[in-house]
Amino acid sequence: CTDVPYATNLPPKIARGEQVIQPWPVRELNQVIYVWYHPEGEAPSFEPELIEEAAAGNDAWGSFKIHTWDIETHMQEIGENAVDSAHFLYVHGTQNIPTPEFMTFEGVRRAGKLVSKMATPRGEITGIIENSNNGPGQATVRFSGICDTVLMANLTPVDQENSRAFYAFIQKKVDGKEQTGGVSDAIVKDICKQMEEDRIIWRQKQYFEKPLLCDNDGPFAKFRKWYSQFYTTDSWRPTVGGR
């Protein structure tokens, strides 16, 4: 606030030009507005990642297809799906369990790659899912094999047991035209269906610091160690024994 046009006697702080409202560090990137929040007011310690496919003016890719959800779980639980390849078969009914090729944790970034064989009317194809995190709130998933699709999955905590997911899908144009209907819409619809299936589990599951894991479970311990760097003393952490 720098001026009150109808006032003749301003509060002293405003009259002196002092800051009276807390500013928020904001970045505009990937056609998205990112806002940094820190419970102790610290400045941003890392920047949002540029997603080339979503950059303004990239005519090779289509417009966003946006879906949002309010989810009854801590956002760490949502992120842990990235290391759980087995659930694709047993929760989402995929043709097989995708094979993890690698999973890395470096600084604020996590990256992984899954490969899966899929039967189609054109014969068997190799589907590839490349997924990454830049901090806990910015996730990117690239699907290739049938219809090149990029998912920007942005997560925001609402409170200790609730999160908000903002999914923006973008798909590669064919012959300069956006893909609509058919396979392109089916891919987005299937991913949204998987989100609804996951929500049922997240709503009911309990969090344990030391879960009992089997030999083919993913690297949950590594993920949690990596994720822990984003907490402060007063952060909303998952509640042990709770959602």
From TrEMBL:
<dbReference type="GO" id="GO:0016020">
    <property type="term" value="C:membrane"/>
</dbReference>
<dbReference type="GO" id="GO:0016491">
    <property type="term" value="F:oxidoreductase activity"/>
</dbReference>
<dbReference type="GO" id="GO:0005737">
    <property type="term" value="C:cytoplasm"/>
</dbReference>
<dbReference type="InterPro" id="IPR036922">
    <property type="entry name" value="Rieske_2Fe-2S_sf"/>
</dbReference>
<dbReference type="GO" id="GO:0008203">
    <property type="term" value="P:cholesterol metabolic process"/>
</dbReference>
<keyword id="KW-0472">Membrane</keyword>
<feature type="domain" description="3-ketosteroid-9-alpha-monooxygenase oxygenase component-like C-terminal">
    <location>
        <begin position="35"/>
        <end position="231"/>
    </location>
</feature>
<dbReference type="InterPro" id="IPR045605">
    <property type="entry name" value="KshA-like_C"/>
</dbReference>
<dbReference type="Pfam" id="PF19298">
    <property type="entry name" value="KshA_C"/>
</dbReference>
<keyword id="KW-0812">Transmembrane</keyword>
<keyword id="KW-1133">Transmembrane helix</keyword>
<protein>
    <submittedName>
        <fullName>FeS-binding protein</fullName>
    </submittedName>
</protein>
<dbReference type="GO" id="GO:0051537">
    <property type="term" value="F:2 iron, 2 sulfur cluster binding"/>
</dbReference>
<dbReference type="InterPro" id="IPR050584">
    <property type="entry name" value="Cholesterol_7-desaturase"/>
</dbReference>
<keyword id="KW-0560">Oxidoreductase</keyword>
